[in-house]
Amino acid sequence: MAEMKPNSVAVFNSNDIYPVSADSTLPFAQHRDIFYLSGVDQEESVLLLFPDAPYEHQREMLFLRETNDHIAVWEGEKLTKERAFQVSGIRTVYWLQDFHKILNEMMTYADTMYINTNEHYRATVETETREARFVKWWKERYPAHNVAKSNPILQRLRSVKESEEIDLIQHACDITEKGFRRLLGFVKPNVTEYEIEAELAHEFIRNRSKGFAYTPIIASGNNANVLHYIENNQQCKEGDLILLDVAAEYANYSSDMTRTIPVSGRFTDRQKAVYNAVLKVKNEATKMLTPGTLWKQYHVEVGKIMTSELLGLGLIDKADVQNENPEWPAYKKYFMHGTSHHLGLDTHDYGLLHEPMKANMVFTVEPGIYIPAEKFGIRLEDNVVVQEKGEPFNLMRNIPLEADEIETLMNE
Q1: CB 193 within 8 A of CB 218
Q2: CA distances (Å), origin 277, targets 172, 271, 272, 284, 314
Q3: Where do the DSSP E strands lie in 4-66?
């Protein structure tokens, strides 16, 4: 609210419950913005903010679907007005049926409306969301008002984490650790990727996670060279590696881990050499995540470190580097994705990449080397918190990472 223009209103909508077919629906997942601002994790909820409203009770308003005994029996208990106040701290709570009437009154006082468009750099949205429908309706209904964007404010707010948020991400990482340690005693030749997924799901859910923070990647052998391999239906062969990009959510906050382990419990010399090269890039890249760092320049520097490691592995030579296309450097043949992204309520969380990094931003660090000709790929990923001074704090510091430690745990 402190960042809003004078005499302006902002509205935030919950997500829809999305249909599948017949009477089937996907599980409800709350829009992260209204959840971040209010703590309300319920469909058909609306948050209205009006810092300069004429009356104090109009400055924060929550609108909820009216609950009753019938809904409680068929769908489970929904928020009452009293419970909504306990959850959100917002005293003014109305039923949703009053929203248009009250909004109309607010519009007579206000000059500007903040609409909440999705401007995330990875977003490709083909479905018309509840938020988008509201924006379309509002612009038609109130054409004389100025329009402003909520998203830049939210990008800056959400990218810098409160201590409570870091604690929740840490808890998600701790649940992920339990799942990974469970796997180290479970994986052996001929196990299937989906059996590994089932072990993780079991461990995550029994620790009060709702499950995976994102669709799990369990990629054995050459499957690891497909960056978003999610079929998870192949048998894991002796001598192969398994790339595991898997992590738990907790209280709607994501963790994001990648580990690469040997099916047989031992790396070959070549596998270990590539593994240690990826680990070195990860460790060096992590040190650069400090206040003031620019995301684009950071990736240029990581590319230089990766180039050095690929030269050492014999995957590229000096001529490849000398003749490289600056738009697609030589190292990109074996490491074609970015090294870091923001992490939080979304796995690819909010953050304006053209602005310098700040303390308490949470980033992944996830370099990889992918070698289809040798039928394996290796990626390693941790989640770290940028500090005021010095190196970032690793939220996954307790999850086994060194090749020797993984071998020891797999052979106990």
Answers
A1: yes
A2: 28, 10, 8, 11, 12
A3: 8-13, 19-21, 24-25, 46-49, 60-64
Residue 297's contacts (CB-CB under 8 Å, 6 or more residues apart) are none
Alpha-carbon radius of gyration of the chain: 24
What are 68-91's pLDDT values in tens digits? 888 877 888 899 999 999 999 999
Question: What is the three-class DSSP state of 37?
Answer: helix
- Cβ–Cβ < 8 Å for 338, 192: no
Which residue is listed with tokens 């990826």?
278
Angle at 330 between CA 326 and CA 333, to 5 degrees: 125
- The model's pTM is 0.96
Could you tell me which residues are beta bridge partners of residue 63? 46, 94
Look at residue 76 in the predicted model and tell me its pLDDT.
80
Element (H, E) at 253: strand 253-254
Length of the chain in residues, anyone?
A: 412
CA atoms of 286 and 100, how far apart (whole Å)? 49
- The angle subtended at Cα 262 by Cα 332 and Cα 342, nearest 5°, is 45
d(Cα 196, Cα 183) in Å, to the nearest integer? 7
Please name the residues in contact with 70: beta carbons below 8 A apart, sequence gap of 6 or more: none
* Token pair in block for residue 74: 């068929």
